[in-house]
Structures are given as structure tokens and as C-alpha cells.
Amino acid sequence: MFSALVTHSGACHADDLFTAALLWVLAPEAALVRTRDDAVIAQHANDGGIVFDVGMIYDHAQRRYDHHQPGRALRADPVEGMDIPYSAFGLIWRHYGHAYIRAILPGFAGDIDALAQQVDRRFVQRIDMGDNGTIPPSEGGLNHPLSITRLLETFAPDFDAPSGEEDAQFRLAASVAGAILANKVRTIAADQRAFTLARAAVRARTHPQWAELPTGMPYLGAVKIEKATDLLYVLMPGRDGTEWQISAVRDPQGPMGCRRPFPAAWAGLRGADLAAATGVEDAVFCHMGRFLAVARSRAGALALLTLALAEASPDAPTHTLA
């Protein structure tokens, strides 16, 4: 697809590393060229290379994707109320994100546009923010020394390292960035599938205060979009099929961080102690935080759920998601 990946020499940054990682998935045999020489850059661009984060040109037709020039591309952010400049990674995702998703998720049958937009919103834009120094207050963690951006920068060779190490360190850092990117895309795709399943379960519930999921999965987005303000608990089988869990629907404004936590008398009890307190023989566990209870069977979990619903606790009013 590309004969060479051309970027700047010197220190590596998150945006050029994630860009290289993405492009190597599409063109695994492409050579790495790190230079700031305009003539070399132009030659490789003319010979089928792709240029990013260097060269002062953004032109998709020429396969050139820099963001340092005057008049650089911006994306409006209605949530933060500020314009976010693209980094090289954002520009590459804009044009090649779909191809990357198809390459790493060959069986993906969902809405690829929606997935690409979610990856951009939840991941790519944050790399853009960190690289450009345009960081809204809500994203202050991007400056943390343990942020992905800062950790990737530690792959740069030491100031007194022998010459010739930069390219090797760049490839190593890009392999790390590639694993992060692939797993981020995979988990966001999984979130989309979970949202669809959880939304169907919330809609199909036969009792306004609890719903049953086919397996453990994120569900709060579905609860919110369905405006299921009465939903207190979610029932689901454990991953290995040997236990059933009941989750108290989270609410930061509610008691113990839930719309209705499990009864205080259950907190921290296990096995025989929880069975004695509830009368449910196969009760396994109730978390000290009172947001999770477990039984060995669906019937046992339903019995715990029924008891929790029946208990009118003065410290556990029903709340809605923020």
C-alpha cells in the first residue's frame, strides 16, 4: 500500500508512533524513513511513500499528513467547547481508520462509521490534544507522567546514547503503541456490542426494577439511553457459568454510589454467613460496598434480588443516573 513510512527524525512522540503502528498494519513491508530533509521527503512521497508529522503539508491526494503548518486542520469539539487541532495521528485516522478497523477486525459486522467515530472521540482526539498541547481541564490526566503519551516518550534514546539507536527505539515504541491501539479498538467495538445487547435486555424486562443480561457486560449506557429510571438491579450469569451475579445499578449521587445498595446487613458476608442472613442456601458473597451479590444458581440470585427489592431501606432511595 505504501513503499515507505516517512516521518521526522529526532525524538519520537505518541502521534507519530501511533500513526506508524496503524500504517504498518496496512503496509507491513513499508520501510521506515526518519528525516527532516525536504528533498528526501518529496522523493519518497513521489515514489509511493506516505509522509506524516513532517514536511509542513497536509494533502491527502499527495499522501502527506503534517499538522505543524499555519492554517492546520481543526475539529470542533461541542463537548469541550474548543477547537482541537489534529495531530498526524488524527489526520491518518481520518483517512485510514476504516481500513485499519477492517484489517484488525476482519469479521466486524457492526456500524464501521460509528466505531471509527467512537475511537476518534475516545482515543485519537486525546492523542491529538496531548501532542498539540490543547488540553481542556477535563483531560488534565494527559499531562500525567504515567499517561500513554508520556510513557511512549520514554522510548527515546538517552541524550548520550550512540548514534543509530533512534530508529530501533522508534520501532520498539511503535510496537507498543500498536498493541495499545489494536486493543483499544477491540474494546470499543465490544462496548458497541454490549450496548446493543444491554439495551435490548432493558427494553425486554418484565419488572421495572430489574433486568437480566445474557452475560456480564457494560450496561449503564443502555440504562441511561432508555431512561430506565426505576431500574435498580441487573442480573447476569458469571463468565464461567458457575455463579450468578446481581449488580446494583450505579449512581454517583446515590447511597454507596448506587441507586439502591444491597441491605446493610449483607455487607461483606460470604458463604454460610450470607446464607444464614438471607435464607438463600447457595448465596456466595455480598461486597462490602453493597453493589454486588452472588449466588451459585439463577434461582438463588433471584431470591437475593427479591429480598433486596422487598427491603425498604431509609438510606437507599432510588436515584437516576446523572
Helical content (DSSP H or I, runs of 4+)? 40-55%
Alpha-carbon distance between the termini? 46 Å
| pLDDT averaged residue by residue | 93
Number of domains: 2
Describe this structure in words.
This protein is α/β, with parallel strands linked by helices and 322 residues long. The chain has two domains: 4-192, no CATH class; 207-310, no CATH class. It is 41% helix and 14% strand. The chain is built from nine helices and twelve strands. The chain has helices at 14-26, 38-46, 88-104, 112-132, 148-153, 166-204, 220-225, 271-278, 298-310, and strands at 4-7, 31-34, 50-52, 58-59, 64-65, 74-77, 82-85, 210-212, 233-237, 244-248, 283-286, 292-295. The strands form three sheets. The protein has a five-stranded mixed beta sheet, sandwiched between helices. A hairpin with a 4-residue loop joins β4 (58-59) and β5 (64-65). α1 packs across α6 (166-204) and α3 packs antiparallel against α4 (112-132).
